[in-house]
């Protein structure tokens, strides 16, 4: 059988009206005022090298494309891309230059934001491009701009709003995240995350799942004539945060942290920079031409360890497994697709390796062993708080025959238990045999277990 019918097979279902990458189709949807008829949905589409502008559904490159009904207002074409720029692209059929696009993005970050490591500029520029092709990946890294007050965190988020695809900077609830993701698949930008209390537990839960394809959440809404209504919505998509403190644990290990510092010189304020609008337009054009091929690149790099020649070309990938690898491979894919200079790639890899040492550093050995033992006991108990004896804890701890100082004893257990802030709710002696009984808070212990990745 010829491969051609397979390559040109139609999508399994209707395309998303705002943004989709499906097989050999890349589609961006907007509202545009064509011929002064009022705002109407239009699609800028590439079907395996054939470009087209559709007013609703239609045929491009011999393929009939059909779209879901809009679930809300789409982005304005003039504000996001520009009618004239789209027209020029369709008439010239020109493929944007990757190295030139990357150089422009990196220069914009250097102009408006001060990072103290060159690799951060590379990652920030590539993450902007990633927001235009993220549907090609099963997992996307969040971005966390972390720094002191006055260091320029909000300006960094403003820059992302200008450069990322449909960047939306706003205070959001779980329901509004669902609405804007369902309608526009926007890039969400969340500022002033300065303490764990700034995000509710529902918000953290909603956001934490949303870096994986297919993520959905149920929300119960009140006020309906029929009583409480239940809505299910998609949440997958790129998100960036800014704040003065690390993110809650469930978000921290899904984000690449960019540490921002006070600049040694006064940086320009970001106001109506036409170069940024042109860079965003170039990102749309580049993604239109290259989005469908990114998934093949991801497949190759994600399984690089299984192919000696690929592993030899990307040796740094072997350092990572699990979540750290999931976060990094999309950045490697974008660097490769943009043909980022090798020196800049090495700087980005060096920074990411350093950031992983900081954010996922191993806990003290004693602390880890104790939390591991307590978490095992917690899963065997009911109630909150629940009780365990010192002897039960000691039974779950590893036996060590080496240095005396490494061995677990009553004094060492007591000292390490006191270090688990919030876990010990009370303690007293058991009648008769005098064994110490600890009352432990389950939720506080769960947070320690999450911190050391014992709950995954």
Total number of strands: 16
Shape summary: elongated
Uncertain runs: 1-12
Average pLDDT score: 84
* CATH fold node name of the largest domain: Rossmann fold
Main sheet attributes: strand count, strand direction, barrel closure:
5 strands, parallel
CATH architecture assignment name of the largest domain: 3-Layer(aba) Sandwich
Helix content: 40-55%
Major sheet: arrangement of strands: 8-9-12-7-13
Describe the fold and architecture.
There is one protein chain. The protein is α/β, with parallel strands linked by helices and 456 residues long. It has helices at 4-7, 77-80, 83-92, 98-112, 118-130, 153-163, 174-184, 201-209, 249-252, 274-302, 308-313, 322-338, 342-359, 365-378, 390-396, 410-419, 442-451, and strands spanning 19-22, 25-33, 39-47, 50-54, 58-60, 63-65, 142-146, 167-169, 187-190, 216-224, 227-234, 239-243, 255-259, 386-389, 424-429, 436-440. The strands form five sheets. Strands 8-9-12-7-13 form a five-stranded parallel β-sheet, with helices on one face. A four-stranded antiparallel β-sheet has the order 1-2-3-4, covered by helices on one side. The chain is 42% helix and 19% strand.
Give a quick precis of the structure:
The chain is of the alpha/beta class and 456 residues long.
């Amino acid at each position: 059988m010829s491969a051609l019918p397979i390559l040109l097979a139609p999508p399994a279902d209707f395309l998303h009206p705002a943004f989709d990458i499906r097989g050999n189709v890349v589609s961006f949807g907007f509202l545009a005022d064509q011929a002064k008829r009022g705002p109407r949905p239009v699609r800028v589409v590439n079907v395996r090298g054939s470009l087209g502008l559709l007013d609703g559904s239609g045929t491009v490159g011999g393929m009939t494309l059909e779209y879901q009904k809009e679930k809300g207002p789409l982005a304005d074409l003039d504000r996001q891309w520009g009618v004239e720029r789209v027209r020029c692209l369709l008439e010239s059929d020109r493929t944007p230059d990757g190295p030139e696009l990357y150089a422009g993005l990196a220069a914009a970050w250097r102009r408006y934001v001060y990072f103290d490591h060159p690799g951060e500029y590379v990652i920030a520029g590539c993450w902007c491009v990633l927001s235009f092709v993220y549907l090609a990946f099963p997992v996307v890294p969040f971005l966390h701009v972390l720094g002191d007050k006055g260091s320029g965190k909000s300006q960094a988020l403003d820059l992302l709003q200008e450069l990322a695809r449909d960047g939306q900077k706003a205070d959001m609830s779980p329901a509004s995240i669902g609405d804007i993701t369902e309608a526009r698949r926007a890039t969400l930008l969340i500022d002033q995350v300065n303490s764990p209390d700034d995000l509710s537990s529902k918000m953290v839960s909603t956001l934490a799942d949303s870096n994986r394809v297919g993520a959905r959440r149920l929300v119960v809404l009140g006020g309906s004539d029929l009583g409480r209504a239940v809505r299910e919505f998609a949440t997958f998509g790129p998100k960036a945060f800014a704040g003065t403190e690390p993110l809650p644990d469930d978000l921290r290990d899904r984000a690449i942290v960019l540490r921002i510092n006070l600049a040694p010189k006064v940086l320009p304020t970001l106001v109506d920079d036409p170069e940024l609008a042109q860079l965003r337009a170039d990102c749309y054009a580049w993604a239109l031409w290259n989005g469908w091929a990114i998934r093949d690149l991801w497949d190759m790099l994600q399984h690089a360890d299984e192919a000696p020649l690929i592993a030899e070309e990307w040796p740094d990938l072997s350092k990572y497994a699990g979540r750290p690898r999931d976060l990094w491979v999309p950045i490697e894919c974008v660097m490769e697709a943009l043909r980022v200079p090798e020196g800049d790639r090495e700087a980005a890899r060096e920074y990411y390796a350093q950031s992983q040492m900081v954010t996922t550093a191993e806990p003290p050995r004693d602390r880890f062993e104790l939390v591991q033992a307590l978490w095992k006991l917690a899963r065997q108990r009911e109630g909150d708080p629940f009780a365990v004896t010192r002897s039960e804890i000691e039974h779950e701890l590893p036996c060590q025959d080496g240095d005396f100082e490494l061995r677990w004893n009553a004094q060492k257990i007591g000292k390490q238990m006191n270090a688990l802030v919030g876990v010990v709710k009370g303690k007293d002696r058991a009648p008769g045999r005098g064994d110490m009984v600890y009352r432990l808070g389950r939720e506080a212990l769960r947070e320690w277990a999450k911190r050391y990745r014992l709950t995954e």
